UniProtKB/TrEMBL annotation:
Family annotation (InterPro entries): Cycloisomerase_2, Haem_d1_sf, Lactonase_7-beta_prop, WD40/YVTN_repeat-like_dom_sf
Family indicated by similarity: Belongs to the cycloisomerase 2 family.
Gene3D superfamilies per UniProt: YVTN repeat-like/Quinoprotein amine dehydrogenase (2.130.10.10)
GO molecular function, one term: 6-phosphogluconolactonase activity
Name by which UniProt lists this protein: 6-phosphogluconolactonase
Recorded superkingdom: Bacteria
Pfam families for the chain: Lactonase
């Protein structure tokens, strides 16, 4: 290292892309913590299309689309996350199923994954830190009023509640399903606290506040954000608000992702159709208030927040990745462009890697 070498602090993140045979795979990036600049670092080609990325501890869990139809394809792939590289550690397949999200139990002895296409939740034992097999599959049987997206169950999210209950959203059935983890590590539905959302809402993603007292559900079909008080599995709705402004969007809108700031002060959401990043402040009672909005590239589909300052947005339609800055002390708007934008073919999923890494410029 030379006398005049300069260093910078970066955060690493990964993007899965379902592009062509040439550019399909997983890309790694630096995000400059001082400027918000996105820097492409590496690429690992994959034979199948990645659909989901879920990080837990030092492990990254990827779901790949089964494009071959073979029973041994698809499944959950477990990787060791080593800065810019992912090293394959285990792979679990089950009847060729494709999984869109993976959750690891608090004791790290079982994993759970949801299959959007077949309406299933599976349990996978973990031995010596690695996924072993699918030991149980729960078939969901919901449906609702939308003639396209709700003819059958389509689980879209699986998360751990603050009290360690497992929450599954079923967009196809307009349901919030609550599960307990039994002594064997299997999921047992809490019938008392599971409930139906408004017909035709289409719940897609859920986040819990830092205090654990509030839950925020993003609905794909009716474009609403629902706010709930949460206590020991019980959800009580206290607010429902649109994710965009009707007068500013000419066509259909789909909210595609949302994040909470680490300090719990704001919630942000991206809209496909309106093509916006919208920021809400979180009030003392858990409800939200829209405070700013900025245009994104066409068709935003993934959103991340770094250091409560930098938003990273991918857009599959335009094939780009871009960053925005949150300046909380500004009087006239607090969302700003960084003008950092890179082309990226077919981004579909994202996950954070190592944070606060010091590297040479």
């Amino acid at each position: 290292m030379g006398l005049f070498s300069r260093t910078k602090n970066v955060d690493i993140f990964f993007v899965g892309c379902d592009g062509t045979d040439i550019d399909r795979g997983v890309y790694s990036f630096y995000l400059d913590s001082a400027t918000g600049e996105i820097i492409k670092k590496s690429f690992v080609k994959s034979l199948a299309n990645p659909l989901s990325m879920s990080k837990s501890g030092r492990w990254m869990y990827l779901g790949y689309r089964n494009g071959s139809g073979r029973a041994t394809d698809g499944g959950v792939w477990q990787y060791s996350c080593m800065d810019l590289q992912l090293g394959l550690a285990a792979r679990v397949s089950y009847e060729g199923r494709t999984y869109i999200k993976t959750l690891i139990a608090p004791d790290r002895l079982h994993g759970y994954a949801i299959d959007y296409y077949n309406g299933e939740i599976v349990t996978m034992p973990i031995r010596y830190s690695k996924l072993v097999r699918v030991s149980e599959a729960i078939k969901l049987n919901g449906h609702s009023i939308d003639p396209i997206k709700q003819t059958e169950s389509h689980p879209t999210d699986i998360v751990l509640a603050p009290d360690h209950k497992v929450i599954v959203l079923d967009m196809g059935g307009d349901q919030v399903l609550v599960y307990d983890i039994d002594e064997r590590g299997y999921l047992k539905q809490d019938q008392e606290h599971s409930f139906n959302t408004e017909a035709g809402s289409g719940p897609r993603k859920i986040l819990f506040s830092n205090s654990g007292q509030y839950a925020y559900i993003m609905n794909e079909i009716n474009s609403h954000i629902d706010v709930y008080q949460y206590d020991s599995g019980q959800f009580t709705k206290i607010q429902s608000t649109l994710s965009y402004l009707l007068e500013e969007c000419d066509g259909n809108n789909i909210p595609t992702d949302m994040v909470l700031l680490d300090d719990g002060s704001h919630l942000a959401i991206i809209n496909k159709g309106d093509d916006t990043l919208v920021l809400f402040s979180i009030l003392d009672d858990g409800t939200i208030k829209r405070i700013d909005c900025i245009e994104t590239d066409e068709g935003p589909n993934n959103l991340m927040i770094f250091r409560d300052r930098w938003f990273v947005v991918t857009s599959k339609i335009t094939g780009t990745i871009e960053s925005f800055e949150l300046r909380s002390n500004e009087k006239r708007g607090i969302l700003f462009e960084t003008h950092s934008r890179l082309p990226l073919h077919g981004p579909v999923c994202v996950a954070k890697g190592t944070e606060n890494l010091r590297v040479t410029r």
